[in-house]
Structures are given as C-alpha cells and as structure tokens.
Amino acid sequence: MTLWPAIFVLALLLINGITWALFAIDKQRAVAGRSRERIAENTLLGWAMFGGSPAAWLAINKLRHKSSKDSFKQPLFIITGLQAGGLLGGFWWWLAG
After folding, report:
1. Are 52 and 83 in contact (CB under 8 A)?
2. Which of 64, 63, 62, 66 is nearest to 77 (CA)?
3. How many CB atoms lie within 10 A of CB 22?
C-alpha cells in the first residue's frame, strides 16, 4: 500500500487552505482601502495553478472577491480546465495501467 494518494490529498488540502486565506486577506485589505498591501493577482493565480483552484472559485463566490473582474476569472477558467483535463487524464492512465 502506497502513501502517495494520502500525501497528495493532504497537500491539496493545505494548498487550498492557503489559497482561501490569501483571498480572504486580500478581500479584507481591499475593503479597508489598503491598496498598497494588497496581494498581487499573479500570486492568487499562482496558488490556484499550484492546486488551489477549488478554493479560488469558492472564495470568488463566498467572499465575493474578484467576482466581477473578468480579466482575473479568464485565466482562472483556463487553469481550472487544464487541471480538470490533467486529473481526468491521470485517472484514465491509472485505470488503464
């Protein structure tokens, strides 16, 4: 029995927790008007690309942060699509192997 699936799931949970926290911190700073302390969009997208896209979408919908900014959501759609394709491809490969 290998441990990699459990480690993978735990890593994704950690990444998604960090992604959610970054969105929440940035939302809090945006509301407070502290624009110089805001978290860069590239940082938020980077964490989404690293595996935090579920938390990014959840934060967009629950925190209402970046929800009307299409220039942010378009790359997030691409990231999510690539991750979904990779996940489906990996699952297909696992089933075939």
Report:
1. no
2. 66
3. 20
- Residue for token pair 């008007």: 33
Closest CA to 19 of 40, 1, 43: 43
SS3 readout for the chain? CCCHHHHHHHHHHHHHHHHHHHHHHHHHHHHHCCHHHCCCHHHHHHHHHHHHHHHHHHHHHHCCCCCCCHHHHHHHHHHHHHHHHHHHHHHHHHHHC
Q: Give residue-wise pLDDT tens across range 53-77.
A: 999 999 999 999 999 999 999 999 9
How many angstroms separate the CA atoms of 22 and 43, rounded? 9
* Rg of the chain (C-alpha set): 15
**Of 50, 58, 63, residue with least CA distance to 24:** 63
Q: What is the pTM of this model?
A: 0.89
